[in-house]
Structure formats: C-alpha cells, structure tokens
Amino acid sequence: MLRLVVMISGGGSNLRALLDACEDVEFPARVVAIGADRDADGLAHAEEYGIPSFVVPFNAFETREAWGDELVDQLRQWDADLVVLSGFMRLLPPRVLAAFGSALINTHPAYLPEFPGAHAVRDALAAGVSQTGASVIVVDGGVDSGPILAQERIEVRPDDTEGTLHDRIKLVERRLLVDVVLDVANGRIDLSRP
Ligand code: GAR
C-alpha cells in the first residue's frame, strides 16, 4: 500500500476523488493524513472519511523557512511514500523539497508548461486560447516547472467563465491524479527517475 499525505488549501475536490478511489480495496494506495496551510474547507473531507488532519498555518510563522520546517516535521510523522499537493497554493521552501525529493507531486489546471502559477485558468481565458488542459507534475524548486507525469488537453468554449472552465478541468485532473497515484503504486511510474 502506497501511503499518501495530501496537502490542500481549498475545497479539496481532487482530494475527495483520491479518497473515493482509496475506498476500493483493490486500489493500492491509502490517504494516511490530510494537511493544509489554513483552515481549508476541504478538511471537512478528512472528518467525513475519518482520516487524521493537520494544519500548519502559513500566517502563524515569521518566515517561509520556519513554516517549512514545521511542515516537514508534521509530514514526517506519517511515514508517507508520496506527498500529493492537491490545490495547495503555497510554494514550498527548499527543506521540504529536500525531505521528499521527487516523492512530491502536484496537480495543475493547465497544460504545463503553459500557464504556470496560481491563476492558470484565468490566465488561459485572458490569453484567448482555444485549448488549455490539466497536468500532474513532480514538484521542483520552480513554479510548476517540474517533470510532467501526466497531462491532457481540454477545449476552451466561447462562453466559458473561469468557473465553468475550471470545473471541466477538475474533472480531468481528478482522473489524471488517481491514475498517476495508481501508476506510482504499481511501479509504472518510477519517481526516482521521473
Ligand atoms: C485544482 O484545479 C488544482 O489544480 C489547483 O487548485 C484547484 C484545487 O481544487 N491548483 C493550482 O492552481 C496550483 N497552482 P480542489 O481544492 O477542489 O481540489
């Protein structure tokens, strides 16, 4: 069983997809803890599924590094094989990256390297592109710049708003995320060589 810790900042719909997948006894991964950088709405999923959760509030620390040190301490308690950033909206300091290496993955609502950053859906709409996408990547020191593990194109419709487009992207993101976790668990993705 691959032990997952999932980190969120928001509603956690991708997290929920993973929790649902893990309900299947045949699925070779389990979410052992859910973490957040704030009092995120998605922590309600932890309660519903009976999974431990923790919050390391970014604003409670004087520096990003101090916040990162506490995050590493919390994450280490769970003996995770894979840390999944799923709508986690903070850049991680180097100590967190060093602690987990490439066993740290992230979902992103664009076809990377297009539209990195915190406003990928808005940026795609503003650019007037006819297609955007969804990606699952390994986290590195940059902004959404790590090796791509899976991605898929999604059409932008003329009447799309940020909300409608993001909802369609998330449908794909959830599937890609579950597939990547499955592939990591089965050894089809080797994160020591992403
Ligand atoms: C997802 O679309 C995720 O890719 C995005 O936040 C959303 C979280 O949704 N993350 C980023 O934009 C990171 N740069 P959720 O909380 O409903 O899973």
Description:
This protein has 194 residues and is of the alpha/beta class. Helices cover 37% and strands 22% of the residues. The chain has 6 helices and 7 strands, in the order βαβαβαβαβαββα. The chain has a 7-stranded mixed β-sheet. The longest helix has 25 residues, at 162-186. The model has no long low-confidence stretch (mean pLDDT 96). Bound molecules: glycinamide ribonucleotide. Glycinamide ribonucleotide (GAR) is lined by residues 8, 10-15, 42, 86-87, 89, 107-109, 118, 120, 170, 173.
Task: Bin the strand percentage.
Answer: 15-25%
H-E order: EHEHEHEHEHEEH
Count of helical segments? 6
Rounded to an integer in angstroms, the radius of gyration calculated over CA atoms is: 16 Å
Global mean pLDDT: 96
Using DSSP, what is the number of strands? Answer: 7
Q: What is the end-to-end distance?
A: 20 Å
Q: Outline the biggest β-sheet.
A: 7 strands, mixed
Overall form: globular
- Helix-strand category: alpha/beta
**Largest sheet strand order:** 3-2-1-4-5-6-7
Bound molecules: glycinamide ribonucleotide
Residue stretches low in confidence (pLDDT < 50, at least 5 long) are: none
Topology record:
Blueprint: E1 2-8, H1 13-23, E2 29-36, H2 43-49, E3 53-55, H3 64-76, E4 82-85, H4 94-100, E5 104-108, H5 120-127, E6 131-138, E7 148-155, H6 162-186
Helix pairs in contact: 1-6, 3-4
